[in-house]
Amino acid sequence: MRWRGSKAESRKKSLARRTAAYNFMPGTGAMVRLAWLSILTGCAAASSRPSGPFDIPRESLGEDAVAVLDEPSAVVDLPLTRVESRPDIYEFLLEELPFTAGVLRELGRATYRIRREARPEGEPETIVFDDGEGIEVRAELVLRERTRWIYVTDGRYDLGLFSVWSRGVVIVVYEARDGALWTRARVYARLKGKVFELGALVLGLLESTIRSKALVFVDAAREVAELTAADPERLYRNVKGSREVDAGVLEEYRRRFLK
Q1: Could you give the CA distance from residue 206 to residue 191 in angstroms, rounded to a whole number?
Q2: Domains in the chain, start-ordered, CATH in brackets?
């Protein structure tokens, strides 16, 4: 490049000074490359995250739950399922899971129990699932949106030969279309402790147990929602007076769904 006149000479000297200053800064080139690498890897990480209903706002979760999402030991999906019911029924049964489980016990369709844990006012609602056979999971409702509920879980899973502890994030989504309710769910689970080193066998057992036990409340709400949509009066009669269901919640059920 040619420079002409005093102005050109001045510009040339200025460029030389800036280049010298740049070269003097220790590690500048590496820093720039590192910055670009961080941007690119950050974009790649963001693009690998789930999108749509399973894309969770990280700010709604604590550090432990975010760690589960970033490095899960297992991810278990419940497929899209058609439920012959309505959103308002399904939401009520998710709100009142102890009642929902009690209905199924009274009808002889379940043996597990779900109880509501006492919490200080203003703290997220927490339920405890206990199958009576070595699996006990606490689930804290951390985010409730119009068609999506997110729980953070912590619990013990009996895998037969041994038990493991796992923290998880459960996402339940649903929508009404084509005259029915459609539901999906996903669980991110992360094992605690050294048992993770046992490898694929443990993870396979964990995924199977989550699918059959830890997500049972989704199936419970679905089952009772369909019974309610089909004949709410009959369901009400069948469980009225039962010690398995809360009388106050049952009365609210009658008020909402019996016309």
Answers
A1: 9
A2: 5-48 (no CATH), 60-257 (3.30.530.20)
